[in-house]
Design brief:
With about 375 residues, the chain is of the alpha+beta class. It contains 9 helices and 21 strands. The termini are far apart.
């Protein structure tokens, strides 16, 4: 059951919510739609649910035109960010709602509905709470009721619209791991909308990163993080240092650091280099092919310590992450002078107008950097 989205376009006044979006969603896949507010991810989810329609493009499932199928017949379960539970109904009545409003010919018997509700409440660890009302539950419990209600209709496709956004951090972490286990147990096709990159990286089989109505990159969490395809993905996923680079004769340099021979054969004069904090190597001794830096601040954060460095050339602030237990070994202290160089660097060339050319990016690794 591959879900194929082809060239979807959806406009609102003054805004292209979706701009030529194409995407394949495989059966049993957990796909995260990740992006900032206004990137188009919720609009895409609403089209899949039948709550909105594109101006052009198609959505097919096993050669069926999904856009021509009424929402109630799509076998889709939808969980909203704020749950949308009926306050005047008990937990059990909320879960049973989608079954009770079915046409008579497809509606299960009262006994079958009661048995399914009981099984679902047990599956989401809410057995014994069926007679309570939503106001008597915690935020995490209400979220699981909303999920049980979506599962009650036995959907082929489960859609989740930022379901953990209203929860505190600890509840969010425990619930998303539980959701991943539930997804694997049921084998559902799941599409999960979030602006939280950590949620997407932890939960998804694949991530579609969206920006301004377009998909910037689709790939596994590892590929998205380690091999970002565009400057936006570099900057949106995780923390990253952004530095200027320039060509001198046939060499590309970033301040004092020699990066590589010119891969673009003289077509570009400037580039932008992205380096993640954990990809920086710190050395106490002065090194030839490295940045010279001064340690400005030390920010302990549990097992990891964040360091703020000031580079001499280019004059730039840099963030590095090191294991906290290595602080003493490295002899790190405020105002210490260090040599710094990257193990991994992503380089995007810039044209004369300062626009990055994502299609000509290069990935530099430690062995590629001139020593």
């Amino acid at each position: 059951m591959t879900l194929k989205l082809s060239h979807l376009n959806r406009r609102f006044p003054g805004l292209a919510a979706l701009d030529d979006v194409s995407l394949d969603i495989e059966q049993g896949e957990f796909l995260a739609l990740l992006g900032p507010s206004g990137s188009g991810k919720t609009t895409l989810l609403r089209i899949l649910a039948g709550l909105d329609y594109p101006e052009s493009g198609s959505v097919t499932q096993d050669d069926r035109d999904l856009l021509k199928i009424p929402p109630r017949q799509r076998r889709v379960g939808l969980v909203f960010q704020h749950y949308a539970l009926f306050r005047h109904m008990t937990v059990a009545e909320n879960v049973a709602f989608g079954l009770r409003v079915r046409p008579l010919r497809t509606r299960p018997s009262r006994r079958e509905i009661a048995e399914r509700v009981e099984r679902l409440l047990k599956r989401v660890h809410l057995d014994g709470l069926g007679e309570r009302y939503p106001a008597q539950l915690s935020g995490g419990q209400r979220q699981r009721v909303a999920l049980a209600r979506a599962l009650a209709v036995e959907p082929d496709l489960l859609l989740l619209d930022e379901p953990f956004g209203a929860l505190d951090a600890q509840v969010r972490i425990s619930l998303r791991r539980w959701l991943r286990h539930l997804h694997e147990e049921l084998g559902l096709t799941t599409v999960f909308v979030t602006h939280d990159q950590e949620e997407a990286l932890e939960l998804a089989d694949r991530i579609a990163v969206m920006n301004n109505g377009r998909i910037e990159q689709v790939g596994t969490p590892e590929a998205i993080y380690q091999q970002p395809a565009t400057p936006f993905v570099c900057e949106f996923i995780g923390k990253v240092n952004k530095l200027p680079a320039e060509r001198r004769a046939t060499q590309w340099l970033c301040g004092q650091l020699e990066l590589c021979d010119d891969p673009w054969e003289g077509r570009y004069e400037r580039a932008v280099a992205y380096v993640r904090p954990e990809h920086l190597v710190l050395m106490s001794a002065s090194e030839g092919n490295a940045w010279q830096a001064r340690l400005q601040h030390i920010f302990p954060a549990g097992s990891v310590t964040h360091l703020e460095l000031h580079l001499d050339e280019p004059a730039h602030e840099l963030e590095a992450d090191v294991a906290s237990d290595s602080l003493t070994r490295l002899g790190l202290h405020q105002r210490k002078s260090l040599s710094v160089r990257p193990r991994v660097c992503t380089l995007f060339p810039l044209d004369a107008e300062g626009r990055a050319h994502a299609g000509e990016r290069i990935m530099l690794r430690w062995d590629d950097i001139a020593a």
